Amino acid sequence: MTLAAAGALALAAALDRTLSEPPSSLHPVAWLGRVVAALDDRLPDSRSVGVALAVVAPVAFAALLAAPVIAVGSVFPASAVPTAATAGVVLFACSSRRMLLSVAGDVIDLADGDLEAARRELRALAGRDAADLSAAHVRSAAVESAAENLADGLIAPLLGFVVGAVLASYAGLPPAVVLAAAAGAAAWVKGVNTLDSMLGYRDRRAGWAPARLDDAVMWLPARATALLILAVGWGAASTDPTASLGRARSAALAPDSPNSGWPMGSLAAVLDVRLAKPDAYTLLAERALPTTPEARRGVRIVSRAGWLGVGVAGVSLAL
64-108, pLDDT tens digit by residue? Predict the structure, then answer.
């Protein structure tokens, strides 16, 4: 049944390539965001509330998105195709590649000609005050966000999908349950990421548990993303692979986050540029901020790393 899961993954990748994102009105992640925002408005800002949300919200989201897979499997027990297609649609809704890279490319293109527009567009990618950012810092933010969003938006849910499918298959569960477990695992990871992005701030007591859970969930995807970026970028890197890996590891330790520095640091090492968030962190401080061609190359590398991740996940399921 992991072969059917590989087909579901291929469908999700094809949908991302052609449609980019589901419409907002039909996007399950948008639904989750509205529910979390409503609960946040009504519940006290306490650590216990954060713990409860971190436990319940991702599990409920996973169950909600796994349910259609189970339902379709019960209606079409003789064929795995409809069930796999449903799982693929769920994975498509829980992952993102093309849209995020498109926005990053738009920000980079605007930075030199219309800086104010670039700053406005940047808000869709990076949670920082862009009002006073120079064009070079806007390009840096776009490159950083492209790398970090590859981990959050694609590699993490892909990894959840693969792990869910493989574990359920080895457990000898029915085919529809295997696909539902894969879809549910991807949705759970996306639920964790979404909760952290909405609540996981230092000034929020309710944000402590979502942030810590996201740190744990993203530990492996962040490092896997760094390796994918290095693998794609080594041919274009100005230094040998060992030196690039060493510089990526050094740069990864600059941000406070235990995870976000890894994909950003690997891309900084491959591009041989400085990436910086003013008053927060600087990666490879001895280098210059990215030029427009360097920033565009960074987005292309992230795109190829995403496709490599899809390929690795597909092969892992098909074996």
Answer: 999 999 999 999 998 999 999 999 999 999 999 999 999 999 999
Tens-place pLDDT, residues 97-138: 999 999 999 999 999 999 999 999 998 887 777 888 999 999
Alpha helices in 207-273 (DSSP H): 208-217, 219-233, 241-252, 261-271
The candidate with the shortest Cα–Cα distance to 245, out of 220, 276, 266, 263, is: 266
What is the residue whose two structure tokens read 């589901």? 22
Where does the pLDDT of residue 242 fall: very low under 50, low under 70, confident under 90, or very high at 90 and above? Answer: low
Number of residues that this document lists for the chain: 319
Beta carbons of 315 and 2 less than 8 angstroms apart: no
Q: What percent of the chain has pLDDT over 90?
A: 83
Indicate yes or no: pTM above 0.85. Answer: yes
Distance CA 36, CA 184 (A): 19
DSSP class of 275: E
* Cα–Cα distance for residue pair 181/62, rounded to 1 Å: 9
DSSP codes, the chain: -HHHHHHHHHHHHHHHHHH-S--GGG-HHHHHHHHHHHHHHHS---HHHHHHHHHHHHHHHHHHHHHHHHHHHHH-TT-SHHHHHHHHHHHHHH--SHHHHHHHHHHHHHHHH-HHHHHHHHTTT--S--TT--HHHHHHHHHHHHHHHHIIIIIHHHHHHHHHHHHHHHTT--HHHHHHHHHHHHHHHHHHHHHHHHH--TT-GGGHHHHHHHHHHTHHHHHHHHHHHHHHHGGG-SS-HHHHHHHHHHHHTSSSSSSTHHHHHHHHHHHT--EEETTTEEESTTSPPPPHHHHHHHHHHHHHHHHHHHHHHHHHHH-
